[in-house]
Amino acid sequence: MLSRLSRLPRPKAVAVCFLPVVALLATAAFAPLPFSVAQPGLTVDVLGENKGDPVITINGAATRGTSGQLRMTTIEATTYDTRVGVTDVVDAWFRTDQAVMPRDSVYPSGGDIAEIERYNQAEMDKSQDLATRAALSYLGEDEDAVEVDLKLSDVGGPSAGLLFALGIIDKLDGDGRGGDLTGGRVIAGTGTIDTAGNVGAVGGVALKTQAAHRDGATVFLVPRAECADAQSELPKGLRLIPVTTLKGAVSSLVALEQGKGSVPSC
């Protein structure tokens, strides 16, 4: 016995079979997906001010005037509760100024907005403490005698650690010979740091290089493990310097400033 579907004319039978597929695709197109869409965010010169306040304030030790800039970089991502659908993902996939990232990699603490804000602030506070300890240890300064206050509004997470540490070193010691770590350049970068001065990967570097270039940077310090990501959408005229330690980052900047020695590249 033939089914009701098999007795339909072929065009109608095909249409009937295709309807569930169309419905499924339509549902998928509008269904929220577990992703966030990110783009280049703000950058801040840690040697300067943020919203009228110095980013780095040091008491208990003589500081020096600096030239050039050390810009920490960020990405901006859709909020945890933003509905990201297939069309958003496809659109971002074909753009160089956007990236699709797993939502849990951007917001690892879960979906409660207040909890996310507390988590990001805690990570920033921890990053500032680690950066201070790493910088003072590198310089051989007494952590009990030198007080460092780091202030950065509306930015969370640990990825500014390397730039905070470099900023502290530049304000206290420069290149160690009376010059600036920056050599008067606009230097940008990203990377976590621990008390031993090890630099860790952070994610989103391809977008951060675009933010850095937009804000005038000519050099970008990138965790070595993320060289390939940084090169994927590297703006023309932006030089990458891979780093694994705070000591290595300082050495690379001094070599670049003085035009002596080897400056590593990705």
Automatic annotation (TrEMBL):
GO terms for biological process: proteolysis. GO terms for molecular function: ATP-dependent peptidase activity; serine-type endopeptidase activity. This is Lon proteolytic domain-containing protein. Residues 1-28 form the signal peptide. InterPro entries: Lon_proteolytic (IPR008269), Ribosomal_Su5_D2-typ_SF (IPR020568), Ribsml_uS5_D2-typ_fold_subgr (IPR014721). Keywords: Signal. Residues 157-239 form the Lon proteolytic domain.
